[in-house]
Amino acid sequence: MGSAAPAWFHTYPVEEVDVTDNSTTQSAAQVTTYTYQGPAWHYDDDFTNLQKDRTWSQFRGYAKVITRTGAAPDPITESETDYLQGMDGDAEAGSSTTRSVSVQDATGDTLTDDNALSGYAYQTITYDHDGGTPQAETVNHPWLSATTATQAAPTPAEVPPLPALTARMTDTDRTDNRQLTSRPPRRTTTTATSPAPPTRTARSSATPTTTSAAS
């Protein structure tokens, strides 16, 4: 890390959105609130910045966002969405080593928190009410293409080191939708896609197939 002075970095997440009715009927406002957990800051790996100015200044969003819809005395619904933040390979302070970061989804699969997948929503859990019991899960399994282009990091090498700049395509190759019940079996619907080779039309050429099974 260079000699840059410590600094504060602020984020301004949305906490509440109210949709009001300005017509003569004056129906109740539709209230949606958001709670955020697990912020992440990545080391600045922008080649255009000077080493002395580098620090952990790249905001990578939140690992979890909880959404609640409704306001008392009406029922309030709750769902939570988990995101990848691209923190695998992030620099360690004052070292030439990097971090190894992965997460486990609701199906038990381990996902590498790859830099290319920052912001990828890998699962959403829906509850029967605010603070209630999970009723449904949607789990996305990411797909990454092979590297299509690479730009080497500038020399001389820095400490912490900068990774090479790479270009890759991302997509979803499988989605599991599970309806959770009080007792097994749980109903699972799996939608599998076959992402095309890395081309400009890869995303639109995926062919979905759907199967259903009890698990």
Structural features, described:
There is one protein chain. The protein is mostly beta strands and 215 residues long. It has one domain. The chain is 0% helix and 41% strand. The protein has no helices and 13 strands. The strands form three sheets. A nine-stranded antiparallel beta sheet has the order 1-2-3-4-7-8-11-12-13, with no helix packed on it. The chain has a two-stranded antiparallel ribbon with strand order 5-6. A hairpin with a 5-residue loop joins strand 5 and strand 6. The C terminus is likely disordered.
Outline the fold blueprint.
Blueprint: E1 16-19, E2 30-42, E3 58-69, E4 77-83, E5 102-104, E6 110-112, E7 121-127, E8 134-144, E9 149-151, E10 165-167, E11 170-179, E12 187-192, E13 209-214
Antiparallel strand pairs: 1-2, 2-3, 3-4, 4-7, 5-6, 7-8, 8-11, 9-10, 11-12, 12-13
In brief:
This protein is mainly β.
| CA distance, first residue to last residue | 49 Å
Strand order, sheet with most strands: 1-2-3-4-7-8-11-12-13
Low-pLDDT stretches are 198-215
Secondary-structure element series: EEEEEEEEEEEEE
Task: Briefly note the structural class of the backbone.
Answer: mainly beta
- Count of distinct structural domains: 1
What is the beta-strand fraction? 35-45%
Shape: globular
Mean pLDDT: 84
Rg over CA atoms: 21 Å
Helix content: under 10%
Helix tally equals 0
Total beta strand runs: 13
Largest sheet, strands/sense/barrel: 9 strands, antiparallel
Biased composition (Polar residues): 94-114
Biased composition (Low complexity): 181-215
Region (Disordered): 89-114, 149-215
